[in-house]
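Fresh eyes needed here. Kindly weigh in on this sequence plus structure tokens:
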Amino acid sequence: MTAQLNARGDVAVLVPAAGAGLRLGPGGPKALRLLAGEPLLVHAVRRVAAAPSVRLIIVAAPAADVEAVRALLAPVAPVTVVAGGAERQHSVAAALAAVPEDVGVELVHDAARALTPPELVESVAAAVRGGCAAVIPVLPVVDTIKEVGSAGAEGPSGPAEVVLGTVDRAVLRSVQTPQGFRRDVLAAAHAAGLAAHTDDAGMVEKAGIPVTCVPGSDLAMKITRPLDLVIAEALLHVA
């Protein structure tokens, strides 16, 4: 059944889905890789569409696949599909350009976080609606983190490294999506033409705008490696 979005909602979700995802191995764009028989993008859109305040979903697909992605998503939700760019920020900018001016809350979401629950979408949107200029969902870092440098010698698998120090993980957070922004904040960050960033919050930080954290979700894991697909499939019954 096709989901019905909220015509009175104040949230647009932008999904950059034009990346190759080389770490996931060969097989086409990462967003179109299969998880339990369905593309990651389908899983992601289905969950985003279930969030009550979402009015629009804009997907930036590989230019050659726009029509195919539009047909793929038609049974899932009423989604607008545009051609993405060579870099993530180009795809986000293309999706943002398709959002009407009266939609004030913009969420940027990775299709690779295919199991993100609708409740997290609503939590991020609520924080933006409540006055935060930029919002990211985060989880505490549980691994010990080491800063390393070159040892100046060759090891069995390349240049050897030595530990320079141990980072205090108490002040570190693992960042997820969707990341939320006031429309004017996200638009200004992209208009500034900054160098490539791995996430949109990084662009906003560079502009000197405070970024607020809200609790993330274990289900919002990023599917990047083949092992992640195995884990995600095991989680499907609870997501």
